[in-house]
């Protein structure tokens, strides 16, 4: 099992924690990680893009000039794709981009993502994150103490003071254990977990 240092909110090391290899020490499957990221981005697409083909553009019912003798190239419609105001050749239409990943594949992808952060020394465990009030400056000070610039903070329970204090901090996102996803983990330069979040992740995914 991997041993990781535990820090307090002042950025001082206060102990170590053993991470469960069933979650934080698996063999990294890059293909599954890639598929999970692609799936999330595809599922987030609205799919409402639309343009008109030549059959949908109004006008163009008659030939603009006779077939022969004008010196122009022959034309059948002013709504052909080569004309200004004409239709689009392969016009996009509203569609659903989403696709499905099996539950086992999603779990394996998340474990691989977390393992890659441990292997890259990009995972920090803090003993707790507690604020008496909603204040962005307090949260920023903690991130500075932990030397986190572009990070993802994972907490076990929905602590309003933590979430609201982090909301205006650039390049730092917060998430709960039950909403953690591969894309956010891989996008973050550093993943910050509370001890409670580690315990909950191991309970759910081990």
TrEMBL record:
Keywords of the record: Ribonucleoprotein, Ribosomal protein, RNA-binding, rRNA-binding
Lineage top rank: taxon: Bacteria
* Region Disordered: start-end pairs: 44-85
Q: What is this protein called?
A: Large ribosomal subunit protein uL4
Alphabetized Gene3D superfamilies for the sequence: 3.40.1370.10
What are the GO MF terms of this UniProt record? rRNA binding; structural constituent of ribosome
Q: Name one GO cellular component term.
A: ribonucleoprotein complex
Q: Which Pfam families match?
A: Ribosomal_L4 (PF00573)
Question: Which family would the database say this protein is a member of?
Answer: Belongs to the universal ribosomal protein uL4 family.
Q: Which HAMAP family match?
A: Ribosomal_uL4_B
Statement: the UniProt record of this protein carries the keyword RNA-binding: yes
Q: Name one GO biological process term.
A: translation
Role summary: Forms part of the polypeptide exit tunnel.
Q: Quote the subunit structure annotation.
A: Part of the 50S ribosomal subunit.
Task: Quote the NCBIfam families the UniProt record gives.
Answer: rplD_bact
């Amino acid at each position: 099992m991997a041993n990781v240092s535990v820090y307090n909110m002042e950025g001082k090391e206060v102990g170590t924690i053993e991470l469960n290899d069933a979650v934080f020490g698996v063999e990294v499957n890059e293909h599954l990680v890639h598929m999970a990221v692609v799936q999330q981005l595809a599922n987030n697409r609205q799919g409402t893009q639309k343009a008109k083909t030549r059959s949908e553009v109004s006008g163009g019912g008659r030939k603009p000039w006779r077939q022969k003798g004008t010196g122009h190239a022959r034309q059948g419609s002013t709504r052909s794709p080569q004309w200004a105001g004409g239709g689009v050749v392969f016009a996009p239409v509203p569609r659903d981009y989403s696709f499905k990943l099996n539950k086992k594949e999603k779990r394996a992808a998340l474990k691989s993502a977390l393992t890659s952060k441990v292997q890259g020394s990009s995972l920090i465990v803090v003993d707790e994150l507690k604020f008496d009030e909603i204040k962005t400056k307090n949260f920023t000070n903690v991130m500075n103490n932990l030397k986190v610039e572009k990070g993802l903070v994972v907490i076990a329970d929905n602590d309003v003071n933590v979430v609201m204090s982090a909301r205006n901090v650039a390049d730092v996102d917060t998430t709960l254990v039950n909403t953690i996803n591969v894309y956010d983990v891989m996008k973050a330069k550093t993943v910050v977990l509370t001890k409670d979040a580690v315990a909950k992740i191991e309970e759910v995914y081990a």
